[in-house]
Amino acid sequence: MDVGGWLRSLGLGQYEALFRASEIDADILPELTDVDLEKLGVPLGHRKRLLRAISGLAAAEISAAPSAPTGAKPHDAAERRQLTVMFCDLVGSTALSVRLDPEDLRGIIGAYHRCVTEIVAGFGGFVARYMGDGVLVYFGYPQAHEDDAERATRCGLALVDRVPQLDQAELLWSISVILNSITVHQSDVFPTLREVNRAFYR
Known about the structure:
Layout: H1 3-9, H2 16-21, H3 34-39, H4 44-64, H5 76-79, E1 80-90, H6 93-99, H7 102-122, E2 126-131, E3 134-139, H8 148-162, E4 175-185, H9 189-201
Antiparallel strand pairs: 1-3, 1-4, 2-3
Helix pairs in contact: 7-8
C-alpha cells in the first residue's frame, strides 16, 4: 500500500513527508498508537482521524482474507483471539465539574488522559476511545501478546498508583478500573469491539 496516497485520500497529505522521514510504511502503520502520533507532532483531531482510518484498514484486511477451503478442519487455536478490555475513569469527576472552571477541568482531564495513554502504551495496550473522564483500552488488539491479561492487570495497578500522583494543587485524585477478558472468533473481532464500544459509550 502507498502510505502517501492513503494519507492524501484522508485529506492529511501534509504528513506524507513526516511519515516517510520516520520510515512509517504499510507494515508499521497498523502498530501506530496515539502516543506515537503525538510524539510525531500530529494534533489531536488528526490523530483521531488517523487511528480511525488505521482501524478501518485492519478491518478491511480481515474481511478480504481468503476463507478456509471447504472441508478443511478448523484450527480453533488460530481462529480464536483473547481480548482484555479495560475501562478506567476518574472518581468524583461530577463534583469536580461543579467546583472548577471549565478550562481548569479540561486541563485536569487532559493531564489524566496523557498519563493513562503513556502508561497503557508502556504495557502494550491500545487506547480505543476517550469518553470524557473515561478511557477505553484494549489488550490483545491490534497487537496480541501471550500475556495480555497480565499486562492489563499490571497496567491497571500502575494507573491506580500513578494517577493520584499527578501534580494538581488541592486535587485528590481517585481512579476506578474495570477489567474483563473475552475470547472471540477471529472473524468476530471487529463486531465484538463495536459492541464493547457501545456498551461503555452508552
